[in-house]
Amino acid sequence: MNMTTLMFALVASLIASPVFAEAPAVNFDQGIDASAILAQAKEAAKADAEVVDAQYMGGRRTVEDCVSVSFGANDPAASPRFSLHSQEYVEECYQTGDPRNGGGRQCYERPGMSYHELASVTLQDRKPLLPWERDTFRVCLDGPWLSIYDIETAYDYRLISGGSYNGAYILAPGKKIAQRPDPVGVLGELDAAMKFTLKDKWASYYAGESIEIKYTLKKDVPNWFDPTITEGILSAAVAESYLVDLSKNNFQNGKKYYVEYSIRRIGTVSNNKFTRTLESNKMTRTAMSLAFNK
After folding, report:
1. Is 169 helix (H, G, I), strand (E, B) or coil?
2. 10: left (phi over 0), alpha (psi -120 to 50) or beta
3. Long-range contact list for 184-190, CB < 8 A, 24+ apart?
4. Cα 100 to Cα 1, 46, 109, 191, distances in angstroms
5. Is 0.90 surpassed by the pTM of this model?
């Protein structure tokens, strides 16, 4: 039987069955009781719904399995092979009792097909990454279907081979994509004189560009909310270190303070999104004379 014949037979069977309840005919030669006709129509519709409900056979679903694959600047261009497993579940339903007397459909799930695939990711003609950059992909098996997605990459990768039933993915890089800057590439330290100094680990890679440092000075209050003393943004040319002088604010000697900060790069090496917020060391405020004598 060819596909056309099969589809025609299926459509014909759906048209021919089931035979639903039919509302009684109306005799227009007699007086019409509208309320009686409406009541009969409702009963007929209810019977139709019960027939359809009793014939529902349940459904199917699959549980997707995914693995993330990440490549750093010094990692091999091919990942090890890894296993993916996707489980199908089938819903079985059956009718218990007469629906008019409290019966109904009962359903349960049972395991169906189990799907297993081996997968790997290879980067063909790989291009260099900056020290903090990574190419990260996600490979998934959903039922029998394999797929790959890029999570964050330094290049616009295209698929060379792999997919469907072939888990050996080969990708090739295209144009460069600016990633987020290193979230810990700039680290800061607060001293007793309330001077906040930051060191830029990757300054040489950003020569000629600019940086913005967003900072919030806070007072450490144990077992309570830490109030904000001051906040701001420092804009500067990229350098090996940066200084934010916070000493002119009102402090209490003997109390601890710290800085929450994040940075963003202004240029073409990285994108211009702020990094996640970091927290400096907690430092006890000392009198100015004592701080200068240290």
Report:
1. strand
2. alpha
3. 184/278, 185/132, 185/263, 185/275, 186/211, 186/213, 186/242, 186/263, 187/278, 188/215, 188/259, 188/261, 188/278, 188/280, 189/280, 189/281, 190/246, 190/257, 190/258, 190/259, 190/280, 190/281, 190/282, 190/283
4. 42, 10, 26, 80
5. no
Structure tokens at 131: 């020290």
Q: Would you tell me which CATH number, out of the four given (2.60.40.290, 2.60.40.3930, 1.10.260.40, 2.40.50.140), belongs to the domain 186-293?
A: 2.60.40.3930
> What digits encode the pLDDT tens for the residues 195-204?
999 999 999 9
Do 177 and 187 form a contact (C-beta atoms < 8 A)? no
Counted residue by residue, the chain has a size of 294
pLDDT, tens digit (0-9, with 9 covering 90-100), for 185-239: 999 999 999 999 999 999 999 999 999 999 999 999 999 999 999 999 999 999 9
Q: Where in the chain is the domain with CATH 2.60.40.3930?
A: 186-293
Chain position carrying tokens 């060379």? 160
Q: Alpha-carbon distance 149 to 214, whole Å?
A: 33
Would you say 112 and 90 are in contact if contact means Cβ atoms under 8 Å apart? yes
Residue labelled with tokens 């790069």: 265
Task: Kindly state the DSSP code that residue 249 receives in the 8-state scheme.
Answer: S
**What is the edge-to-edge ordering of all strands in the sheet holding 65-72?**
65-72, 134-142, 145-152
The pair of structure tokens assigned to 27 is: 């005799």
Taking the C-alpha atoms of residue 44 and residue 21, their distance in angstroms, rounded to an integer, is 6
